[in-house]
Amino acid sequence: MDESSSPPNVNRRMCPSRLVLEHITSRWGVLVLAALLERSYRFSELRREIDGVSEKMLAQTLQTLERDGFVHRDAKPVIPPRVDYSLTDLGREAAEQVWRLARWTERQVDTVLTAREAYDEARTPVPRAGTRAGARTIHQ
Fold first, then answer.
1. Residue 3, φ and ψ in degrees, nearest 5
2. I want to staple 65 with a disulfide (CB 3.0 to 4.6 A). Which of 27, 70, 109, 114 is the partner?
3. What is the dihedral of CA 111, 31, 23, 47, to 10 degrees?
4. How many CB atoms lie within 10 A of CB 73?
5. Residue 75: CB partners within 8 Å, gap ≥ 6?
6. Prediction pTM value
């Protein structure tokens, strides 16, 4: 059975689902989907809502999500031009999934930070007796 006829499996290198997963779980993909879950946005509003995203990255992310069928771009023929972004039904379903993950992450961040500290402390070398911290010990 060749890979093209097998069911989707994100663990397979050439599976198209892997790229879709990458798009919706990328740093900006998650944040765009989460923001659009609330309501539709104009580009400039969305950029203000998602603190730290560059104009270029937001444009690329919106284009990718639109191509994948998650985002609807509504360009109105008015002057000045008005473009609104909203979720498709598929996008809403994806956004609800990543939104839960984002909220879980917010609730667990203190636990993760504590785990990081414990990990780092367990791997910090303890100076040998008779040496000062940071000094190299030479063994003969």
1. -65, -30
2. 70
3. -150
4. 13
5. 81, 82, 83
6. 0.77
- Map tokens 């992450």 to a residue: 105
What backbone torsions phi and psi does residue 86 show, to the nearest 5 degrees? Answer: -145, 170
φ, ψ dihedrals at 122, nearest 5°: -70, -20
Confidence of residue 22 (pLDDT cuts 50, 70, 90): very high
Beta-bridge partners for 72: 86
User: In residues, how long is the chain?
Assistant: 140
Cα distances (angstroms) measured from residue 2 to each of 14, 18, 105, 113, 123? 11, 17, 38, 44, 45
CA distance 37 to 31: 10
Q: How far is CA 82 from CA 1, 43, 132, in A?
A: 49, 9, 66
* Of 78 and 69, more confident: 69
* Axis crossing angle, helix 89-123 with helix 27-38, rounded to the nearest 10: 130
E runs forming strands in 7-137: 41-42, 71-76, 82-87
